[in-house]
């Protein structure tokens, strides 16, 4: 619609104002692009789903894991959910080695999560704490902020 309006204005502008229409069409198309890019940036926050790479924020020895499966929900995992993951990067002397399949609890998620009081929690990255099958943490320390 904005492009159609801009093309009509540019045709009228050339005949009546001699070039002002070109500036008007550029202005309208730039504002349209800015609105679209703002809309797309709002839509980039997604669930933690298969093949999502997450940062490990405990001292278990793993640095990065890739989600294999979210254990709750069809779409994916959110803040506080448990996932099954594969270790992609690990420290040489850690408890967890590269390639091992582990469980993890999401402690930071880029997708916003609403609370009962109306507030929303959202982080800049996706982070996980590794746990065993019973839910006990593998590491002994958790680094950085996190809520679950």
UniProtKB/TrEMBL annotation:
<dbReference type="InterPro" id="IPR000218">
    <property type="entry name" value="Ribosomal_uL14"/>
</dbReference>
<dbReference type="GO" id="GO:0006412">
    <property type="term" value="P:translation"/>
</dbReference>
<protein>
    <submittedName>
        <fullName>Uncharacterized protein</fullName>
    </submittedName>
</protein>
<keyword id="KW-0694">RNA-binding</keyword>
<keyword id="KW-0699">rRNA-binding</keyword>
<dbReference type="GO" id="GO:0070180">
    <property type="term" value="F:large ribosomal subunit rRNA binding"/>
</dbReference>
<dbReference type="Pfam" id="PF00238">
    <property type="entry name" value="Ribosomal_L14"/>
</dbReference>
<dbReference type="InterPro" id="IPR005745">
    <property type="entry name" value="Ribosomal_uL14_bac-type"/>
</dbReference>
<dbReference type="GO" id="GO:0005762">
    <property type="term" value="C:mitochondrial large ribosomal subunit"/>
</dbReference>
<dbReference type="GO" id="GO:0003735">
    <property type="term" value="F:structural constituent of ribosome"/>
</dbReference>
<keyword id="KW-0689">Ribosomal protein</keyword>
<dbReference type="InterPro" id="IPR036853">
    <property type="entry name" value="Ribosomal_uL14_sf"/>
</dbReference>
<keyword id="KW-0687">Ribonucleoprotein</keyword>
<dbReference type="InterPro" id="IPR019972">
    <property type="entry name" value="Ribosomal_uL14_CS"/>
</dbReference>
<comment type="similarity">
    <text>Belongs to the universal ribosomal protein uL14 family.</text>
</comment>
